[in-house]
Design brief:
By secondary structure, this protein is α/β, with parallel strands linked by helices. Helices cover 45% and strands 15% of the residues. It has one domain: TIM Barrel (Alpha-Beta Barrel). It is built from 10 helices and 8 strands. The chain has an 8-stranded parallel beta barrel with strand order 1-2-3-4-5-6-7-8, surrounded by 5 helices. The longest helix has 22 residues. 44% of the residues are buried. The mean pLDDT is 97. The structure holds zinc ion.
């Protein structure tokens, strides 16, 4: 297992990576996100970033903004997000990123939208197929993260709908987000359904209501049970600590999980 930490997009990028290195993480998950992770800014810092990432045990992973709406029913907006995703893939390649995440975000999952909900799911698939094809040219593996909010493609049923139609995409399982969709039963459902297709994790805690991103043990997620489920599928890849209270808290959470893993 390799354990990492995500950069805070509000803080200058090299400062963030240096801090993550100093907090004993195995790799950095680079937020290719506005404002400090904007593609044009990252281009100017390419050499400095590569110098830092080469000092980690494992290669960097890419993380894009959660609100990019590839499911948009406004065609102009949908195409604009695809264009932006391609720019992000270009910079990911420059930064030697092999795994790049996109979120199955959508604002159309409210059941009141009726048949338009399915149209939004199909639009997400359409957009992602084009993005996967583009990333594939550079040998970049696209991973799709399950989001947390009610109106996103967050429920196992909706997430499965799109992932079934995107066989080339791998699963990026966010444990905290899965928990918000129905507690430990939901976490178990995601792990059992996708099994070996899961290639990356986000780890943090919450009380099941809001996407709090608090330290492990401060919320209601039964992490010893989660670790047991992951060991059952022989999960042995990457886990990024998305604890947003502080980097020190993220490091302490990592140490807790490391203990459970042993
Ligand atoms: Zn996440």
């Amino acid at each position: 297992m390799k354990f990492g930490n995500l950069t805070n997009p509000i803080v200058e990028m090299t400062e963030e990576i240096r801090s993550i290195l100093n907090h004993n993480f195995d790799y950095v998950e680079i937020g290719i996100e506005w404002p400090e992770g904007d593609v044009d800014i990252l281009k100017t810092k390419k050499k400095a970033i590569l110098d830092l990432t080469s000092q980690f045990d494992a290669p960097p992973i890419g993380h894009t903004a959660w609100w990019m709406d590839f499911s948009s029913l406004y065609e102009g907006e949908r195409l604009a997000w695809i264009r932006e995703a391609k720019r992000q893939i270009d910079i990911a390649r420059d930064l030697d990123i092999g795994l790049l995440n996109f979120h199955s975000h959508s604002v159309y999952m409210d059941p009141r939208y009726g048949k338009y909900k399915t149209q939004a799911l199909d639009n997400f698939v359409l957009s992602m197929r084009e993005i996967i094809k583009y990333a594939d040219n550079y040998g970049i593996q696209v991973i799709v993260e399950n989001p947390g909010q009610e109106v996103e493609i967050a429920k196992l049923k909706d997430y499965s709908y799109v992932m079934k139609r995107l066989p080339q995409a791998k699963v990026h399982l966010d444990i905290g987000h899965a928990f918000m969709q129905g507690g430990m039963k939901s976490v178990n459902g995601f792990i059992k359904t996708f099994n070996k297709r899961i290639v990356h994790l986000h780890v943090h805690d919450n009380h099941g209501e809001f996407d709090e991103h608090i330290p492990i043990g401060n919320g209601k997620i039964n992490y010893p049970a989660v670790v047991k489920m992951l060991k059952k599928i022989k999960y042995d890849r990457t886990a990024t600590f998305e604890v947003f209270t502080s980097r020190k808290d993220a490091e302490a959470s990592m140490n807790k999980i490391k203990k459970m893993w042993k």
